[in-house]
């Protein structure tokens, strides 16, 4: 695809900012709560649910927001919605920095951040679906490396910055977000057709779209199809598990700390393994994308589902004081989990519905998936306050068994873009 210089310029720019999209999506959706929760507990004495309730409320609102954002992307284009969303999210970061003990300002700011990470994720997904078919999995594997990258450097960096600068750290995040908004506004286009190009940089329109209906799939059609419900159930479970896991990693390790772990087990031991494991796991985003391109989205999804076990099982059985081997496995699993779902969710939806029908289907699928995900923090917070956080991990293992069986039942679903999988090799590229 890099033989076409104009396509190369746009695709490289997209992959660069796409990494940042996923870095901040992962960080500002739930990951930053690993630092924010202990800080606010120790500084202001707030409990788990007081700190995270604005996130839960935001997650509930996102149930409908997926529909609104998806429709807006189709009608107005990705950039016209994404750029102002990033700027308002930056204002939310400024609000957290300025809030102090004013809970109202804190809650509104955190709510805005949680809500406006939705267009950040959906925008990256739709741009990838618009620009790539044959290379979609591998490109998604590149940009979704931003999620485990957040685990490698982001959590440790935030921990250090909050320790030194307190909540003023969020002012720094806001500044970076404003720069990201400007690059998004001027550096990319919504579709390759806007600049006279075609997906993957080839010289003609995709074969698989030649007889595709122009009318987007309706919600009635979508919800009457078993393939849609299989997507909703399988990836709904995977997203619930990510939201639950990522927001309570630090809390889990702190609860297992001993007097020898200073200041706590998460900082003294787990962060190091998270960096090492996540660094080794970053290439897995690309590997999963490669499997998607070469073997199809269903087989890649099964591999991803198994990799989730590497993240969940160690935290379920982790002893007091930690265990080196379990921490290493957990850290690798976290990287595969956080990088793999953002890679595969748009890939498997495009696999089933095709490039043109992607957003029409995706907005409904993600809206329904957001319903259980909205209560992931409440789920974890409730078990934590009961002193039975380990039980939450065992429940998630049962959920992952359900998702694996559901994905396996999708094995006969055809690839909507099958005619175009090899066309880049068969056509002269300008």
Automatic annotation (TrEMBL):
Q: Which GO terms describe its molecular function?
A: transmembrane transporter activity
**Residue ranges constituting the Major facilitator superfamily (MFS) profile domain according to the UniProt record:** 1-192
> How is this protein named in the record?
Sugar phosphate permease
**Coiled coil segments of this chain:** none
Which organism does this sequence originate in? Anoxynatronum buryatiense
User: Per the UniProt record, which residue ranges are transmembrane?
Assistant: 7-28, 55-74, 81-99, 105-127, 139-163, 169-188, 228-250, 270-290, 302-321, 327-352, 364-385, 391-410
Lineage top rank: taxon: Bacteria
Chief location of this protein within or outside the cell: membrane
* Gene Ontology CC, one term: plasma membrane
Protein localization: Cell membrane
Q: Which InterPro entries match?
A: MFS, MFS_dom, MFS_trans_sf, Proton-linked_MCT
What are the protein's UniProt keywords?
Membrane, Transmembrane, Transmembrane helix, Transport
Q: How does it sit in the membrane?
A: Multi-pass membrane protein
């Amino acid at each position: 695809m890099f033989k076409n210089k104009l396509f190369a310029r746009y695709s490289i720019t997209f992959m660069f900012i796409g990494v940042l999209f996923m870095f901040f999506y992962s960080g500002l959706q739930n990951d930053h709560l690993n630092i924010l929760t202990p800080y606010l507990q120790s500084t202001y004495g707030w409990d788990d649910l007081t700190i995270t309730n604005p996130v839960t409320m935001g997650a509930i609102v996102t149930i409908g927001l997926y529909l609104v954002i998806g429709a807006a992307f189709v009608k107005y284009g990705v950039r016209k919605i994404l750029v102002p969303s990033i700027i308002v999210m930056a204002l939310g970061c400024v609000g957290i920095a300025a809030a102090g003990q004013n809970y109202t300002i804190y809650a509104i700011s955190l709510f805005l951040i949680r809500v406006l990470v939705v267009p950040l994720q959906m925008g990256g997904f739709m741009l990838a679906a618009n620009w790539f078919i044959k290379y979609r999995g591998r490109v998604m594997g590149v940009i979704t490396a931003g999620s485990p990258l957040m685990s490698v450097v982001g959590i440790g960096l935030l921990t250090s910055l909050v320790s030194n600068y307190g909540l003023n750290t969020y002012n720094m995040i806001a500044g970076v977000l404003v720069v990201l908004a400007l690059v998004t506004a001027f550096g990319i286009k919504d579709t390759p057709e806007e600049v006279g190009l075609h997906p993957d940089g080839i010289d003609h329109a995709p074969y698989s779209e030649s007889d595709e209906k122009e009318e987007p799939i309706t919600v009635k059609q979508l919800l009457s199809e078993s393939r849609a419900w299989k997507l909703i159930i399988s990836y709904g479970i995977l997203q619930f598990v990510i939201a639950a896991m990522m927001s309570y990693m630090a809390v889990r390790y702190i609860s297992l700390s001993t007097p020898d772990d200073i200041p706590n087990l998460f900082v003294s031991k787990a962060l190091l393994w998270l960096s090492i494991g996540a660094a080794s796991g970053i290439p897995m985003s690309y590997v999963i994308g490669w499997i998607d391109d070469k073997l199809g989205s269903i087989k890649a999804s099964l591999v991803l589902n198994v990799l989730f076990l590497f993240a969940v099982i160690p935290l379920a059985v982790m002893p007091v004081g930690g265990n080196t081997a379990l921490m290493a496995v957990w850290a690798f699993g976290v990287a595969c989990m956080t990088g793999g779902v953002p890679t595969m969710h748009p890939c498997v939806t495009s696999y089933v519905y095709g490039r043109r029908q992607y957003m029409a289907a995706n907005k409904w699928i993600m809206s329904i998936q957001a319903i259980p995900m909205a209560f992931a923090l409440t789920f974890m917070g409730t078990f934590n306050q009961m002193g039975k956080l380990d039980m939450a991990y065992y429940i998630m293992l049962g959920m992952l068994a359900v998702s694996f069986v559901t994905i396996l039942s999708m094995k006969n679903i055809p690839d909507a873009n099958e005619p175009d999988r090899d066309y880049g090799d068969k056509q002269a590229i300008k």
